[in-house]
């Protein structure tokens, strides 16, 4: 694999507004083959929009989005509606993702016993695993996951991130995922980007979790699993999400 093959996707200085409201501001990032990049940020920070930009589902006002030639992407969206009246087994649903052994992938995700269940009858946590299995069936180079652990209890979340990590090792794809729970994903993540319209901080999970801006955004997090923070930050955000230099909070600023 050449160096250029290792880079799956690149965003350069991407900015985007909806109805004159800035949603993404000067966002640059790259995703490497075989690596896990986690996007973390508060509600409305632009995380899902960022994934949609990457997927080509959302155009940008300025900046560049480039994907490696013939990049195959597996996507797990934040929500998906399935017609309650449609007779559909888990196996059939997963097989819709692509050619391959649906039962094997479901087994790898420890939901093999559900193959013949109706997709409407399984639990929220089981459904997240099934969605993941369907995305893996595409044999992706890049897996794009928008809050893959939503609706899953804390134990189950840890297991799900473990499964994502194992699948990544087995199949070799890169992963970009949105998560609200850095303390749970950090052990399974190579890089973290903390997003609040723009990139507030980024780096390895240990650094981001101790970052003042991350802590301002997420408040007190459980200490368990958090490691040492090592770099500095020079700004905060006002109530509208605008950047305010450190020691120069705006009138509306809600940060401490
Ligand atoms: N098509 C659209 N038109 C107008 N506004 C939009 C559109 N899509 C998203 N937005 C707005 O952009 C902002 C960012 O939305 P986005 O879904 O990217 O946030 P998020 O960080 O994923 O949030 P959450 O954690 O709550 O899922 C929100 O205020 C949302 O209402």
From TrEMBL:
Residues of the ABC transporter domain: 9-221
GO-annotated molecular function: ATP binding; ATP hydrolysis activity
Keywords of the record: ATP-binding, Cell membrane, Ion transport, Membrane, Nucleotide-binding, Translocase, Transport, Zinc, Zinc transport
Species of the source: Leucothrix pacifica
Gene3D superfamilies for this protein: P-loop containing nucleotide triphosphate hydrolases (3.40.50.300)
Swiss-Prot/TrEMBL GO biological process terms: response to zinc ion; zinc ion transport
Keyword presence, Translocase: yes
PANTHER family: METAL TRANSPORT SYSTEM ATP-BINDING PROTEIN TM_0124-RELATED (PTHR42734), ZINC IMPORT ATP-BINDING PROTEIN ZNUC (PTHR42734:SF9)
Annotated Pfam families: ABC_tran
Protein known as: Zinc ABC transporter ATP-binding protein ZnuC
């Amino acid at each position: 694999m050449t160096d250029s093959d290792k880079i799956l996707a690149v965003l350069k200085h991407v900015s985007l507004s909806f109805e004159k409201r800035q949603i993404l501001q000067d966002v640059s990032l790259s995703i490497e083959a075989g690596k896990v990049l986690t996007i973390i940020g508060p509600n409305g920070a632009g995380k899902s929009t960022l994934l949609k930009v990457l997927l080509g589902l959302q155009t940008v006002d300025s900046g560049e989005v480039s994907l490696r030639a013939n990049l195959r992407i597996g996507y797990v969206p934040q929500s998906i509606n399935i017609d309650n009246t449609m007779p559909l087994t888990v196996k059939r649903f997963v097989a819709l993702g692509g050619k391959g052994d649906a039962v094997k992938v479901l087994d790898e995700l420890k939901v093999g016993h559900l193959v013949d269940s109706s997709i409407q009858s399984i639990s929220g946590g089981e459904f997240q695993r099934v969605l993941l299995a369907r995305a893996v069936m595409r044999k992706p180079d890049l897996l794009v996951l928008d809050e893959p652990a939503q609706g899953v209890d804390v134990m189950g979340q840890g297991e799900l991130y473990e499964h994502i990590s194992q699948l990544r090792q087995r199949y070799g794809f890169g992963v970009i995922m949105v998560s609200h729970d850095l303390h749970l994903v950090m052990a399974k993540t190579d890089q973290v980007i903390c997003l609040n319209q723009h990139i507030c901080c980024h780096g390895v999970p240990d650094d981001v979790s101790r970052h003042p801006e991350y802590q301002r955004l997420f408040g007190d997090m459980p200490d368990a699993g958090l490691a040492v923070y090592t770099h500095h930050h020079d700004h905060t955000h006002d109530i509208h999400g605008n950047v305010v230099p450190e020691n120069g909070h705006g009138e509306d600023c809600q940060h401490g």
